[in-house]
Structure formats: structure tokens, C-alpha cells
Design a protein that fits this description.
- This protein is of the alpha+beta class and 420 residues long.
- The protein has 20 helices and seven strands.
- The strands form two sheets. A five-stranded mixed sheet has the order 1-2-3-4-5, with helices on both faces. A two-stranded antiparallel ribbon has the order 6-7.
- Helix 1 runs antiparallel to helix 4, helix 3 runs antiparallel to helix 4 and helix 6 runs antiparallel to helix 7.
Length: 420
């Protein structure tokens, strides 16, 4: 994740220090107060710039004090909001509606909007939310502050604003460096490894960028092009492999999707990203007909440890495939829907579970989280919308016949063990 200091360089770029540094250093809360009362664009932007400099210098206690002020003093005044609503109900005019909407949001939202006016302020707010999410672990009463900040970030990072960019070995070095830094699924341990993923003609990479953060990817996806659906990550990442000719690619495999900004947690971009990349690839490769993932199963081992079958799964390939299918299709989280977060993501996008593979990721991480198992989710363009609606409205999980058979076998094993 990007640090606040990285974003701060864009806030202060081109600003003369003597102009923006007050003669007497102000506390973080004093800087926030100046942002609140500033008038006019120039004054607001100056106050916001001073705030971000002060925020960067503050320690965790200073930032927690700021978040507590946001929570205690700048929250929604329910009585005023109710009175404004009553006035609107009595006289439904444009003026009374405007008065109600002004009272129906917490004053801290306006401060966040003002902080966004500093050069680079958007990135700083993303970094601030990352700090806020960490603070929530020990101060859950700050949740209301996060609700307001997330609401604004979600509006500012909508699909109409984000730019989809192809990334390759010729992309700017500062962007390529971020791909190494943010890769969350299959670690990139060198520039040579990155080159293997971005330079060959049968490899593609795409990322979303925000205009206020031009060198900071929001999320990126890596794609392997070939002529068959892969069943292990090693065949994709191997240095010595046969490169598929541009004209021979019929299968596009999404093998890594990485969210880059911790401060945007809970704001989904991946569903739009995959659909846009599918359209982009269809234009470039006229023979592409299959779009799949090769996805990790991060919660499998933890779940299996709670069952009597968990201990021996790694040694029994068929049982592993059966229990993996059962886990993906039938094990639910406390909030409903599949327990596995990657399954929730792809099934919610309209994909279906296509195939389960044992010995597909033999890395230390792959063995630890799923005994080396991986899964293909198939994105069938003709069925995606129907699958999405069935999953969202009925909880129905689309799956191939082969996977359905594995699910049935896994269910029978679970029942048999429970009966014993």
C-alpha cells in the first residue's frame, strides 16, 4: 500500500515552504479547525495543504485524537435532521429540501471534501482511511467516521472516473515498481520475474487508475493467453515455457487480481475490471472464446481443520477435490453466501465453478491455505448476467457437471463421517 508520505509529495509539489508553513506550528486539530472555517477556494486549498503536512508529522496518538474529534464533534445531529425533515414534510419546497439534505449529513463530510481540494488530496484521504481502518481494531466507536469517508471515496472512485490502462514492460518504471509492491496472490520477487509476466506476447496486465493518482494503480489483473485451460500456476509462471503465438490464443486466464490501496477496502472494482478486460481482449484477439480464472482458495485449510477429514486431505487427491468443491459450493459464511472470499467475488460477478485442481499451487503459501488446490471460475459471456442474478437473488451457485459431482461426493463424505 502507498504511504501517506508518497501522496504528500504531490500535495506539496510546486509549493514554496515559506508560503505554506505557519510561523508557529499548529497542532493537527488546529489545522483541521482551519480547514473547517476557511472560505474561498484558495484559502481552503491552503488550509488543506497545511493539514496534510501536519497529519504526516503526527503520530498514531495524534491521528487517533483527530478521528475521535471527527466522531464526537462532527457527527450527525439527529435532532436537527429530524426538525429539518419535519419542516420539509410541512412545506415540500426546494428550499426546505435543500435545508434537510444539509442537515442530513454529518459535518465531517464537508471537511473531507475540503481536504480533497489540496493537490494530491484524494490519495491522502485514501491513506487516511487506511489509518482509520487500523484504528478501528481498537476503537470500534469510530465506525461512523469510516462510514462517511467510505461514502465519499466510493463516489469519487466510480467507474466513470477510473481509467483502464494496459500495462507492459514498457510502462513507466514507477508504475511497474508498484506491480511488484502490490502483487498479493503470487509474489513477484524480482524485476526479471516481472518481465516474464509483462513482456511476452502471450501475457497481458491491466490496471485501474484514478486521475488524481496517475502513478498509483487501484487494482490490477494479470492475464495468461494460451490454447487450453491451465490446471496449475507453475505452468503459467514457469520461466522456461512455450510462448503461444498471438494468433493462436483461444483461452484467457485471469491468474492474479490484486487490490492495491488498503484505504479503498470494501469498495469493489474487480467486477468492473474483469468485464472491461474481457471486452478489451475480444477486440485484440479475435479467436478468444474462453475466459477463466486460476484462483486460490484462501479459506480451505482453515475450514478443513474444523472437520474430521482435514488432516489427510493433502495426501488424498480425490478427497481433496471433493471437499474443495463442497467447501466452495455449500459452506456459507456467518453473513450468508460462500465462506470463501474469492468464490464470493467471482460467483457474484456471474462466473461459474468450472474445475477443481489438486497440486496446482505447491508454493508454501498455496500449501498452507488450500493444500495446493486451486479452482477455475469460468466467465461465459452469454451466461454471466443470468448467473449473477441467480446468485444474488437466490444464492444459486453456477457450477459445471463435473464440479456438481464432486460436491455430491463431498456432501456424502461429510454426512458419513457425521453419522459415525
Amino acid at each position: 500500500m502507498a504511504t501517506l508520505r508518497e501522496f504528500l509529495s504531490s500535495v506539496t509539489e510546486g509549493v514554496t515552504p515559506l508560503r505554506w508553513r505557519p510561523a508557529v506550528p499548529l497542532s493537527l486539530l488546529e489545522c483541521a479547525g482551519r480547514v473547517q472555517v476557511a472560505e474561498g477556494f484558495d484559502q481552503i486549498r491552503q488550509a488543506a495543504t497545511d493539514f496534510w503536512i501536519s497529519y504526516d508529522a503526527a503520530d498514531d496518538n495524534g491521528r487517533l485524537e483527530l478521528f475521535s474529534w471527527f466522531n464526537a464533534d462532527l457527527g450527525l445531529d439527529v435532532d436537527e435532521a429530524r426538525a429539518a425533515l419535519d419542516a420539509y414534510e410541512q412545506e415540500r419546497s426546494a428550499a426546505s429540501l435543500q435545508a434537510f439534505t444539509a442537515k442530513a449529513e454529518a459535518p465531517r463530510r464537508e471537511i473531507f471534501r475540503r481536504l480533497n481540494q489540496a493537490k494530491g488530496g484524494t490519495g491522502c484521504l485514501v491513506a487516511m482511511r487506511n489509518d482509520l481502518l487500523k484504528a478501528l481494531r481498537t476503537a470500534p466507536d469510530l465506525k461512523a467516521v469510516d462510514v462517511d469517508l467510505k461514502f465519499l471515496l466510493k463516489a469519487w472512485f466510480n467507474l466513470g472516473v477510473l481509467e483502464l490502462r494496459p500495462l507492459d514492460w514498457n510502462s513507466p518504471a514507477q508504475v511497474l515498481e508498484k506491480l511488484i509492491k502490490y502483487e498479493a496472490v503470487h509474489q513477484i520477487d524480482s524485476w526479471r520475474a516481472l518481465r516474464q509476466r509483462t513482456e511476452p506476447p502471450d501475457r497481458r496486465c491491466f490496471g485501474y487508475f484514478h486521475p488524481s493518482m496517475p502513478d498509483e494503480p487501484i487494482i490490477f489483473v494479470q492475464v495468461a493467453l494460451g490454447d487450453q485451460i491451465p490446471n496449475s500456476i507453475s505452468e503459467i509462471l514457469a520461466e522456461e515455457r512455450e510462448i503461444v503465438a498471438h494468433s493462436g490464443s483461444t483461452v484467457a486466464t485471469f491468474y492474479s487480481i490484486s487490490n492495491c490501496q488498503g484505504g479503498l477496502a470494501g469498495i469493489s472494482f474487480g467486477n468492473f475490471l474483469i468485464k472491461q478486460v474481457v471486452k478489451f481482449l475480444q477486440v485484440e484477439f479475435e479467436h478468444l472464446e474462453t475466459f477463466v480464472t486460476l484462483s486460490p482458495i484462501p479459506g480451505l485449510a482453515d475450514w478443513a481443520a474444523t472437520t474430521p477429514l482435514g488432516e489427510n486431505l493433502e495426501q488424498d487427491v480425490e478427497s481433496l477435490r471433493q471437499m474443495t468443491a463442497y467447501y466452495l459450493a455449500e459452506v456459507s459464511s456467518e453473513r450468508g453466501g460462500p465462506r470463501d472470499p474469492v468464490a464470493r467475488f467471482h460467483l457474484g460477478n456471474g462466473a461459474r465453478i468450472h474445475a477443481i485442481h489438486a497440486d496446482a499451487d505447491l508454493s508454501e503459501k498455496g500449501r498452507a491455505q488450500s493444500f495446493g488446490a486451486m479452482v477455475n471460475y469460468l466467465y461465459d459471456v452469454a451466461d454471466m448476467t443470468e448467473n449473477h442474478h441467480a446468485f444474488m437473488s437466490e444464492g444459486k451457485i453456477a457450477q459445471s457437471k463435473a464440479v456438481a459431482q464432486l460436491v455430491t461426493a463431498g456432501r456424502q463424505k461429510i454426512t458419513q463421517v457425521a453419522a459415525e
